[in-house]
Amino acid sequence: GSVPFLETLRDRAATEGDLWLAEKLTRHANDERRHGQIFAHALKQLNKQVIDFKNTPKPVEKSGEPKRNPFFDAYFEGYTSAELKPEAIDWIAFLASTYILELDASKDFVRMANVLPEDEPINANLKKGILSVASDETGHAAYLREALERRLTAGEVEAVIDSWRTRKVNAIVAMVGSFIQKSGKSPSLVQDGVPTEMSEAPEAALAA
């Protein structure tokens, strides 16, 4: 998950002496942990649960290798799996690629929240939770851009952001192409019912 990844990056930043970035990554990891609680609680209210992919057989290619995510394959084209590990990833690549994802996510979450009606308690709480997540994502994008600005000139920052923006467009095209090839059959990320452990999730998660 993203939390262990961010925590490893935090430790790496601290070891390298960048305490400012280490503090930002700590906050980012904590936010992502809270986001998981928000969405788990929302799904519980809707009588849904997230599918546990650890207990789901992974689809394999004919070669026997696990299928890869077409979006991330295209987004990180040219990078090996080893180069994308938190212990090794290039800081500029991490900062710029994550900046694009966080910035776009913040806008997507606001759009999502704005279509929810507020005349029912469940929807009202869900909307509040999603807007809280959107606010966090905006903050994440801000520190990631600042981190880039601490390392690069203004022109270099714009160039690297433009490069990763292009990568995301290409990644979306790749994802859509993969979806079409599968005849529009996209697996659901949720299923009916709520497991016992989720029923004990903190009721205050959405109010965070």
Structure in words:
This is Rubrerythrin family protein. InterPro entries: Ferritin-like, Ferritin-like_SF. It comes from uncultured Leptolyngbya sp. Residues 184-208 are annotated as: Disordered. It contains seven helices and two strands; from the N terminus they run H-H-E-H-H-H-H-E-H. The chain has 208 residues and is mainly alpha-helical. It has one domain (2-57, 69-207). The chain has a two-stranded antiparallel ribbon. Helix 2 runs antiparallel to helix 5 (121-151).
Task: Note the topology.
Elements (H helix, E strand, L loop, with lengths): L1 H14 L3 H27 L2 E3 L19 H6 L15 H24 L6 H31 L2 H28 L8 E3 L3 H4 L9
Antiparallel strand pairs: 1-2
Concise synopsis of the structure shown:
This protein is an all-alpha fold.
Q: Which structural class best describes the helix and strand composition?
A: mainly alpha
Structural domain count: 1
Fraction in beta strands: under 5%
Helix content: 55-70%
Mean pLDDT: 81
Radius of gyration over alpha carbons? 19 Å
Distance between the termini: 21 Å
Work out the number of β strands.
Answer: 2
Q: Major sheet: size, sense and barrel closure?
A: 2 strands, antiparallel
Poorly predicted runs of 5 or more residues = 49-65, 188-208
Strand neighbour order, sheet with most strands: 1-2
The number of distinct helices, counting runs of at least 4 residues, comes to: 7
The coarse silhouette is globular
Order of helices and strands: HHEHHHHEH
